[in-house]
Structures are given as structure tokens and as C-alpha cells.
Give the backbone structure.
Amino acid sequence: MHVNFLKPALRSVLRAFAGVVCASVLAIFFVQVALAQASPPQPPESSEPTEAPKAENASLTMFEHPASWPFWISGQANIIYQTHGSFPARYSGPNSFSNRYEWAISSLETLYTAWAPTKRTELLFNLEETTGGGLSDAVGLAGFTDLDVVRNPELGPKPYVARVELHHIFPLSSKTTEGERGPLDILTELPQRRVEVRAGKFSMVDFFDQNDPGSDSHYQFMNWTIDNNGAYDYAADTRGYTYGIEVEYQDRAWALRFAETVMPKVANGLDQQWNLRRARAENIELELRPKLLRNRSTRVRLLSYVNHANMGVYRTAIDNFLAGKTPVPEITAHPLQTTIKYGFGANVQQDITSSLRAFARFGWNEGQHESFAYTEVDQTVEVGGDLRGNAWKRKNDKAGVAFVSNAISKVHQEYLALGGRGFLLGDGALNYGRENILEAYYNAHVWKGLFAGPDVQHIANPGYNRDRGPVLVPGLRVHLEF
């Protein structure tokens, strides 16, 4: 590690999230003063409780967030350092993962606010800022190593609105279950049967493809295709957010959710297409909660999505190149058009003991149309698990390991082999092999809302190329929850 370069980078990161700390402390102080004389609400009528999922490390924060408050205000800062040494590569292209030594620091800061005017309605507003960057400017890998990195370095470090969301619950039963208050949901008394409606700006993976052991880069894995289903090309701008409406039905043993959202105008673009006749996305997911093991939670989620957008077709791009119309295959060299891309996913998690959890994902999309919003994966298989530190008397520590194998379609392979480029990949040639990634982490609870720990990722065939790699990427994460 080059210490002389690391010191100014760390100072920049610390300055970036210092504002979040100060804003959170001041806001919490003023809320406490405003509510000091308010009497707590009357407890709800007794009802038969049912099982409810608990938010990850919801109570381990720098400041208390009393359940009696109709407000929520908090902040977080997630700082990730990653590096890698040189590795063998027969050739490199414009979108290659660098085969020379490099290091990078990313930082993601979020200010969460929420207000619940009634026990069935809440309003969410989140601000975010990203600083630093990722290895190789976040190109060259389908399963990139840091989920917090914004894929467009030209955006720069400036605050932006992440979520503006209205959430309302329509009760369908008198029985209730207790919800866990957290930054994205502060309603705690939930009808056992209910319809929930959310509208505004949000991330699709706030609701779809969720997986308790493997969906959170703040506490768990860091790789894009381990925290999310790589073949799920979900509607999002370059920062990972979209606008739309999400509706879900919740029952004791199952749930069904549907979302209609907007798509970006171009692949990995920031601007959204508001004409729904030209671009939109439909997503549907069925969640089942069978009792496979006694007193152990099981979740099975079955996902399908359809994207309508201005997407190129790999075969057309190849044919245009072979006909001499373009110097290399160019997936974006086409008139304005609306094409359709669809895919499916399966997501399973199982509590094995009170400390041990396992999970698995499978994803597939048709692979004929341009990878557009998330990453360049057409098929993925993933298995993993995590272990809480009860056995070594560190109940708030956690260790995890996961393996994912990503693939692309035949025509997608041909496109890259002929020198084509996607928004992430393009070595100039391709000796195809599945991109296989093994990741392990340890997350230690240091004090209150402070966590830190190492992470390591081994990547074989980076960018699906047998002529490059393998590469080992060690890292270190520091997370603060206010």
C-alpha cells in the first residue's frame, strides 16, 4: 500500500462523511427538543403476533431511535478500500479490468429521513453522496467488486436525492404483526393481511430479489453479483434508482408484489424516459414462506421481469459489422427503437441454526438484447451463507462466504469476441469462460454503530476472458450507522 497516496484519500473520505455526522446529530437534537413534551401514543389493542423479519443490525446505531417517535432521522457512511496486484493478461482493451497494481477507496454517505403522519402512512426522503471511486473505473468485470461505486465517474462527488417515497398500507385483517423500525420503513404495527402501495423514487432491489444473508454491502458481501441477481437487469439509472409504483399483497405465509417503473434513455444512463410507450419495466415476484425446518425461517422468492427500452440487438450489431457498416460491432449504432428484454430469477434463504444461514440464487435472461441497466450477465448461479459470532462470544460479529458463477449468451460472446463493447466489458477480443467469483468477509462490531472488517474476492476469467486473470482483490470496510 502506498501510504503517501492513501493519507490524502482518507482525509477526503473523512471530510465527505463528516457532514452526514453533523447533520444527523443536529437533526436528532432538534427532534428531541420538539418532542420532549409529547406524550407517547397509546399502545395498540392486543392482537395475536406473527413472525416478522428483523432488519439487519437495526438497533446497533450511534444514536437511539425511539419507537414512539413519528419521525426517523439517521445517517450512514460506508467506506471501502480495495486493491489488487498485477495479474497475467495476454491483451487488454478499452473496458478491461486493469492487470497492473492499483487501489481505490469508495465512500457512500446517506441521510435517511421519514415521517409517519398516521400508523398506516409514511413519507421517506433520502439524500446520498458518493466520493472516491472503484478499481479500474468500475469496468472490466460483470461481477464488479464494490456495489457502492457509481458506474459513471463523470458525475462527481455531489449530493443527490436517492428516494422520495409515499408508502401506505391498506389493512385486510384485524390481526397484526410487529414490524422492525428502520431507515426505509418506520411503521411497526402491520396487519397480518394487507396491501401495501409505494410510489415515488426508489431502488427496485429495496423490494425485489431481497435476501437477508446476501443483499447488503454495508454489512455483508460487496460484489455486485453476490448482493444482487446479476441476470436481473432491473430498471435503474446509473446510480441505481428509478421512479414508479410498487404494490404488494402480504399474508402470513406468502406475498405477491408488482412494480411498474420507468427506464433510462440509454444503457447505464442518468436520464429517464418518461414516455411509457417508448420505455418501461414490469416486475412481479412471488414470495413463499414454507416451514421446512421447525422454528427456522425459510424464504423462497420467484421473480420475473420485462423491460421495454431503446435497446440494441447483438445479432444486428454483428451483422452490421460483417457488412462493413461499422468498424467494430456497435450495440448502440441503431435508430431510436423499443425492444423487449425479459428474464427470471429464483432466490432462496434458509435459517439452519440460530447463528447459521444459507442462501442461493439463480437468474436467467434472454441475452439477445443489450445489457442495459445493471450489469452484463445473462445467466447466474450463486450459493453462500453467513455465521453469527455467538460461538466465539461476539454475537454482533458476522462472517460470510459466497460463490457465484456468471455467464453470457452465445451471441453476446460473439459480439465481445469481435471487438464489441458494452457499458462494462470489452477487451478487444474474447477467449470465453464463465466468470467465477469467490468472496469471503468478516464484519466486526467495534462500538455502538461502528463496524469494520476485511473482505477478499477471487475472480477467475474476469470479464468472461480466459486470457486474463485470475485476480485476487483484498479489501477493508468501515461502516458507521448513526
Remarks:
- Residues 1-54 have pLDDT under 50 and may be disordered.
- Residues 3-36+61-481 form a domain with the Porin fold (CATH 2.40.160.10).
- The longest strand covers residues 102-118.
